[in-house]
Specification:
Blueprint: E1 2-5, H1 8-16, E2 23-28, E3 34-38, H2 45-52, E4 58-60, H3 66-79, H4 84-92, H5 98-106, H6 110-134, E5 137-140, H7 150-156, H8 165-171, H9 173-182, H10 184-196, H11 203-217
Parallel strand pairs: 1-5
Antiparallel strand pairs: 2-3, 2-4
């Protein structure tokens, strides 16, 4: 297998975003980075040309089947002891908008909600590892998460800046993870939109996802 530095949290984020009206996610098989193209932003034109002209290098990240997300919830419920909360969670999956109903039920028990976040993160990590294995890639932890992506360096002629370990710890991975926690609930609504509920307007959710990855990929561009 080919070894690449991959931020799995970026990949799992891309795999869970089902509304693709504004964003398209790609995996750079040369650098191991998750990058995205956004509709309506002029500064993505140069990046878009590089991606479209290198289809073998950039693999589009399709959203995972919402049935996998549903199965993760079922697996989590099966791990819980037989309590009224477990019954309520099981009931939440049997009606419309199960992802939102599941989340709302967990809000009434924060310790179990924390357990769910840990279980969900680990389940998504396994899915991301499987996705990478299908590409013949074994991920390792990136050494520097603050540097501009290789795509941005190529598109805008940016030189990769040196970043201290302390800077990375405070402003890199921690910042993205905090943003992901803030917008975690929005991801669930997108599953409801895809296959388990009536139509829901998701423009705000998509904008939230844009902000998450923009924190990762923002760079100073020049014309």
């Amino acid at each position: 297998m080919k070894t690449l530095p991959v931020r799995l949290v970026d990949l799992t984020t891309a795999l869970e975003v089902h509304s693709r009206e504004l964003l398209t996610y790609y995996f750079d098989t040369q650098s191991g980075e998750v990058v995205f193209l956004s509709e309506g932003l002029e500064d993505t034109d140069k990046r878009r040309q590089i991606v479209l002209n290198n289809s073998e290098r950039f693999v589009e990240i399709e959203p995972m089947d919402s049935r996998k997300g549903f199965a993760i919830m079922e697996q989590f419920i099966a791990r819980l002891p037989s309590t009224p909360l477990r019954e309520k969670l099981q009931w939440s999956l049997e009606g419309p908008k199960p992802f939102r109903r599941f989340r709302d039920t967990l809000l009434k028990n924060l310790p179990v909600r924390d357990q769910w976040h840990e279980f969900h993160a680990e389940s998504m990590r396994k899915i991301a590892l499987e996705w990478l294995a299908n590409l013949g890639i074994e991920p390792v932890e990136p050494a520097n998460t603050e540097a501009p992506s290789l795509l941005d360096q190529e598109a805008y002629g940016i030189k990769k800046a040196e970043t201290s370990d302390s800077d990375v710890e405070v402003t890199g991975e921690q910042e993205l993870d905090e943003n992901r926690d803030d917008n975690f609930d929005d991801d669930l609504d997108e599953f409801d939109e895809e296959g388990y509920s009536e139509t829901v307007e998701l423009s705000e959710d998509e904008e939230a996802q844009l902000r998450i990855l923009w924190n990762r990929c923002r760079v100073q561009t020049s014309t």
